[in-house]
Structure prediction request, 545 residues.
Amino acid sequence: MSRNKLVDRTAITGVGWTPMVKKSGVSVLTLAVDASLDAIADAGLVPTDIDGLVTYFWGIRDTPAPAQMAEALGLTSCNMSFCDGSGGAWAAAAIAAAAMAVQSGMCRNVLVYRAANARSEPSFLPGMDTWHSGQRQWNEPFGAAHPATLYGPHVSAWMHNHKLSNLDLAPLAVLQRGNAALNRKALMTEPMTVADHQASPWIVEPFRLLDCSVWNDGAVALVVSATHDARHGPSSVVSVRAVSGGTIGAPVRRNDAAAHWELNASVLAPALYEQAGIRPSDIDIAEVYDPFTGVALMHVEQFGLVEPGSSPARIRHGEFALDAKLSVNTNGGHLSEGSTAGLGHVVEAVQQLRAGGVSDDFCTGDHDYDRRHCRQVRDPEFALVVGESGDSALILRRQ
Amino acid sequence: MTDLRAAARPDPDSQPFWDACQRRELVGQRCGACGVWRWPPRAHCSVCHERQPLWEPLFGTGTILGVVTVRRALDPAFAHTLPLPIIHVGIDGTDGAMVLTSNLLPGQWPQAEVGKPVSVRFARVRSDLILPLFTIDYKKGGVTND
Prediction:
């Protein structure tokens, strides 16, 4: 097998974000530019250094188009742009697109961004067909339109196979809320207990309200450049060790009767680890796509980080926390920080890996790992980021 | 509000399935060349790539592979059937290839569980639309039409 030419050749050199809020009160373009200017400055660049743009959406384009961003940022060249419609499945694929453009020499610095006023200006209108062509007829006539009705049957198959109940989903929701409380940009920071989770109303069984990701306004952005360029930048280098993206039919590997809970992750994960030259046990941090609690746990298991069915019990025994051997969704994820179609997971992984660590917890000086104000993980080297269903994923490395 | 059931709109790949439902028959699709079952229906076989779709009658029985129960309806068409169980049904006789998203009959939601056998019950949900719904089937019987 030929060695993937991307390994460690590109790096994420800058990250930026806006707070995740219920009503931003500004245009989506303003959100995107705010986050992007921060990311560009963080990379030690000026906007005219950007010569490639990547963004993505699901169903209907709610993020600014590359042409709008090129104009708003005053770019003088744009050698490549992508505006993909695959949603959270593209979270890591967006980095792959940027890394390929840089590695090929087509671009020098690619800005990857995603912005939406998803809460205050919902873009989905009643009756809108946002399905893959021809697929609507097999779902909506039976009332299956909400994302929970599309993921849920696969999660219930996983739960049934491992004899899990809704109570087993609570520990992850509680863990992520605790992490979000240490995150200045997070939307949901009120303390949560297992009892709170169990008292929250059913939305679509097996999910209660506190099993669901939040709807919010907000933007995140990051800059991808060549690793040798990044060494001259202001931040320590976080390289793209391995990345793979695509789809073989979200959300599940095969929509047939065998292993109805098996996500595309089961195909992608082994190839990703091989590309990276590491094992699952080498991963220090996993930022996994979490539209619902159960889906996040399936991601953790199907990326080989723990034995199938064991994740709920592990969290109850203290695993996956900031001080555990493996830390999961350290920013609070979509369940509590806010939804960013998975790009916020990449931003968090970069923050955790770079020298100096996360910049938006509540530490006033150096990180002291006191979990009353510090969310920095101790000395991580490898972070895994998983997009929706494992359709795309990447491994980042601190250089 | 939207009427989700209006989405039961056939296309050239699916027309024979919906036509059969209006006759209260459940049909599936396999390759006319190599015989491999497939779902959803489409012109080409994904294994041998021949363009010979073949529709076959089915017994209408299957097994629940996954289930969710909707507690709050987004669509008034479902308001009187809450809680609404949405099930993935692995259809017998299709080598596991055909999985339908459907509903259990109203009132059966407490019994909605992965692994339970079901059989099809065609239900006229609108004057011009018959949908294939399912009922829990402890006897594992054949097609029941009403």
